[in-house]
Backbone:
């Protein structure tokens, strides 16, 4: 053999070849852990500051269309960080989160429009329902990894899409026409906002932004907790974790349910803002696009997928009319997977790290 | 005379773990070399390094010419491996497994018929898929498959693993025939008895390095045995 | 259920059989679930349209389209699969997903959004009497071509040297390399063949389904399900599963039309949960 440099580095993944089809390459992550009070407090302060600052965005973005892009991006971002959480912590790529997103959107629409519930109770119902759906589906699919998992989530998601288009249940779902969400009865406000206010991006923004920050903070806490560490151990070597005495099924199911809950919250927010749900919220295009947004944004950073989602919504607005959106999505996915495994945010973080080592190196050199 | 096979001070690693820490080994035409050492010493890795399975730094030469990076090159240059664990194809028949040896592109005296003569068990198992063979039959099939490639040097990685003594004797007889045909052998074994019966020379590995080497006769001496820690 | 419906099921199964064989071959060897397979099929159909719209015969399209797709397959192997060998299978799968999106859009850019007609050749344009039923001759052709292709493929895999190398390398890539098989070259053959089969399926489908931009996506999920149900990497299993699914789909359309569309999903879910490696397991 001619000279082949050895890759001797402590960062390398397990010596034993990866027999599972999950993880590898872009799915390796090194995270810090621990929920000491000081760390949690610091995180909470950061979250609070970000929350408050974000509330001023409507003052900066005056254009209604641009505000809409930001709001829609944030809502999709909540689903995306859920998908990203699952991909990062459990090494599982899902094409089926539209089931929970669309499922809870329909849940809200049906509960308000057909059953006459108030928006608040309907929203609660939808989020809980979506999460329970995630638990139900997760219970079945979580034992399988890799392509099998991808196929199963795709199958469940698209089966639900098919159901939403069936003419036989048109009275409930509206089939291809969807449901125009109407609030009836005395209680027509969601947390004090009227349907009109929910539909206007500037007034909707606080709800979306606060939801994103709260969900992100929650996922951050979960990630640093012992539960999060367990998930990662299972991700890296399921067999070893099982032999070490961990129940691998329940934590994985929990991780799936949590990520599904994020998608459900996003779905409800979508329905509240759009006041209209159609099978598109369950369709293949959204499933694919939300996954691509997650990957392009980069899921090794918690908020990466949210940034990807905002970029996607922006691109959707820009290229949607030309019809070339999917072309760019495809190219973005190919380029990201091959050259930027950490996504856009992963790349940015890597540049900062390089800069920091460069600076530290210079300092060291000048000192000696 | 140029050695047939030269492994020249190689370092091999899997992922981040260094397994071979500077190993050299050479095999001359027609000779049989025993490669011994404890579990994990790096014996299998030494053989697999020829095929680029671990990440390798250092040069390996066949008849004086260095091997390139392609995994299929050693077989075409006359270096055939009988892997540890046999690795026969369970989904292919006995004949198909043997015929795969032709993938080396080398042709010569060995034919399916002659190999069945050498290993009567295989003749009896004719037409059966690999997963229906016993351990001994699988081992013979693996050797037959490697011989079909007309090797100049045959590498055997723990061929007696899990085999009954009766089968081992059959194996030794077959290997003697192969030796008489002029093929060089590298015999990797944890237990030294087979090495003592077949080899003229031995190389002992320990923790990824060559610990000692010499004539097979020396294996009798306690000093060597302690060194090899067998 | 009458004979015509059974034959319709077989016709659909025939298409799926051709498509899924290629997909199963590629998966068996490279370990990649080629999400662009539906797009390749669609490209084959559009190439067939292109050939016939130039006034050339459909029979010529039946040769040219697969040839063209074989070249596309070579591009996939050389440009992507070979370079991404060390990456995880999921990552390569995602890349093929992206490729599918790109091909889908490029097709619309070149040929537009409309449904394009491809006429079946005159010789098979009528009906044939099959056991008392008048059945479109073209669909019989589809079934015949698929069966001939399946037989030829299986015979070739079992009896040729390259076929042996494919079966060996699909089972154990490393040992095959050690024995002297140039796995990269075998891969090239397999991916080109898979592409050609997709092109063949697309060409056959063109007069039957008509040529439209959504055909790639709509068949992709079905063919993925067939390959998984048939057993990961098993060509024979995929073929059997294809016929099964074709028949089951038509039966579903006849007996439970309101939920027929859910049948493939139900099948996939049941099979994957009951036997995670599919029905046939890993064998070629």
Residues:
């Amino acid at each position: 053999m001619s000279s082949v440099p050895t890759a001797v580095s402590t960062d390398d993944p397990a010596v034993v070849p990866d027999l599972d089809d999950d993880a590898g390459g872009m799915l390796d992550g090194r995270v810090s852990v621990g929920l000491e009070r000081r760390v949690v407090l610091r995180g909470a302060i950061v979250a609070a500051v970000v929350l408050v600052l974000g509330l001023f965005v409507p003052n900066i973005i005056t254009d209604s269309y641009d505000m809409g892009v930001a709001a829609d991006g944030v809502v999709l971002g909540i689903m995306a960080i859920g998908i990203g959480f699952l991909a990062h912590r459990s090494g599982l790529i899902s094409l089926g989160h539209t089931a929970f997103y669309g499922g809870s959107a329909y849940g809200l629409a049906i509960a308000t429009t057909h059953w006459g519930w108030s928006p608040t109770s309907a929203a609660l119902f939808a989020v809980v329902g979506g999460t329970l759906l995630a638990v139900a589906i997760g219970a079945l699919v979580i034992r399988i990894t890799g392509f099998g998992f991808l196929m199963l989530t795709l199958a469940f998601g698209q089966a639900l899409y098919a159901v939403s288009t069936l003419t036989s249940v048109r009275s409930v779902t509206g089939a291809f026409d969807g449901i125009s969400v109407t609030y009836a009865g005395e209680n027509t406000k969601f947390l004090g906002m009227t349907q009109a206010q929910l539909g206007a991006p500037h007034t909707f923004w606080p709800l979306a932004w606060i939801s994103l920050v709260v969900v992100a903070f929650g996922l951050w806490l979960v990630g640093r907790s012992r539960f999060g560490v367990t998930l990662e151990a299972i991700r890296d070597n399921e067999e070893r974790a099982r032999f070490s005495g961990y129940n691998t099924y329940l934590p994985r199911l929990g991780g799936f349910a949590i990520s599904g809950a994020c998608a459900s919250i996003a779905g409800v927010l979508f329905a509240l803002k759009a006041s209209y749900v159609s099978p598109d919220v369950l369709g293949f295009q959204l499933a694919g696009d939300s996954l691509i947004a997650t990957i392009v944004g980069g899921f090794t950073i918690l908020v990466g997928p949210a940034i990807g989602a905002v970029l996607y919504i922006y691109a959707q607005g820009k290229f949607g009319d030309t019809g070339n959106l999917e072309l760019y999505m495809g190219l973005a996915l190919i380029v990201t997977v091959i050259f930027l495994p950490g996504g856009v945010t992963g790349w940015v973080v890597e540049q900062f790290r390089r800069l920091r080592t460069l600076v530290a190196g210079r300092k060291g050199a000048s000192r000696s | 005379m140029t050695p047939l096979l030269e492994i020249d001070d190689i370092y091999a690693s899997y992922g981040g773990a260094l397994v071979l820490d500077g190993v050299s080994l050479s095999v001359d035409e027609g000779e049989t070399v025993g490669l011994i050492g404890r579990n994990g010493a790096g014996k299998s890795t030494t053989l697999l390094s020829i095929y680029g399975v671990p990440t390798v730094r250092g040069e390996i030469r066949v008849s004086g010419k260095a091997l390139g990076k392609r995994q299929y090159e050693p077989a075409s240059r006359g270096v055939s491996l009988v892997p540890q664990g046999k690795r026969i194809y369970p989904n292919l028949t006995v004949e198909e497994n043997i015929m795969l040896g032709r993938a080396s592109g080398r042709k010569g005296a060995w034919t399916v018929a002659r190999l069945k003569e050498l290993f009567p068990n295989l003749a009896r198992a004719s037409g059966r898929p690999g997963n229906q063979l016993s351990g001994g039959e699988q081992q013979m099939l693996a050797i037959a498959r490697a011989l079909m490639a007309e090797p100049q040097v045959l590498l055997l990685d723990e061929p007696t693993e899990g085999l009954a003594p009766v089968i081992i004797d059959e194996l030794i007889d077959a290997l003697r025939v192969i030796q008489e045909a002029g093929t060089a052998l590298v015999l990797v074994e944890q237990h030294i008895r087979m090495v003592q019966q077949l080899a003229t020379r031995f190389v002992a590995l320990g923790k990824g390095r060559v610990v000692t080497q010499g004539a097979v006769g020396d294996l009798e001496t306690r000093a060597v045995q302690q060194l090899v820690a067998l | 259920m009458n004979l015509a419906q059974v034959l319709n099921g077989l016709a659909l199964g025939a298409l799926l059989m051709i498509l899924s064989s290629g997909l199963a071959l590629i998966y068996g060897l490279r370990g990649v679930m080629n999400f662009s397979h539906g797009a390749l099929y669609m490209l084959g159909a559009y190439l067939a349209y292109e050939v016939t719209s130039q006034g050339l015969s459909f029979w010529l399209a039946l040769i040219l389209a697969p040839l063209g797709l074989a070249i596309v397959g070579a591009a996939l192997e050389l440009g992507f699969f070979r370079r991404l060998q060390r990456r995880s299978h999921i990552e390569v799968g995602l890349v093929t997903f992206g490729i599918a999106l790109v091909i889908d859009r490029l097709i619309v850019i070149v040929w537009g959004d409309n449904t394009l007609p491809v006429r079946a050749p005159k010789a098979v344009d009528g009906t044939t009497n099959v056991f008392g039923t008048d059945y479109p001759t073209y669909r019989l052709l589809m079934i015949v071509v698929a069966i001939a292709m399946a037989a030829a493929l299986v015979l070739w895999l079992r009896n040729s040297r390259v076929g042996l190398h494919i079966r060996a390398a699909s089972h154990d890539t490393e040992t095959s390399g050690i024995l002297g098989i140039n796995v990269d070259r075998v891969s090239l053959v397999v991916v080109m063949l898979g592409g050609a089969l997709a092109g063949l399926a697309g060409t056959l489908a063109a007069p039957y389904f008509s040529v439209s931009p959504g055909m790639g996506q709509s068949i992709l999920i079905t063919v993925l399900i067939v390959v998984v149900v048939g057993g990961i990497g098993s060509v024979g299993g995929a073929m059997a599963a294809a016929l099964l699914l074709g028949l089951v789909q038509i039966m579903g359309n006849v007996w439970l039309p309101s939920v027929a569309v859910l049948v493939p999903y139900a099948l996939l879910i049941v099979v994957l949960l009951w036997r995670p490696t599919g029905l046939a397991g890993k064998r070629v």
Q: What stands out?
A: Chain B has one domain: 5-228. The radius of gyration of chain B is 17 Å. Chain B has a mean pLDDT of 90. Residues 5-228 of chain B form a domain with the Rossmann fold fold (CATH 3.40.50.300).
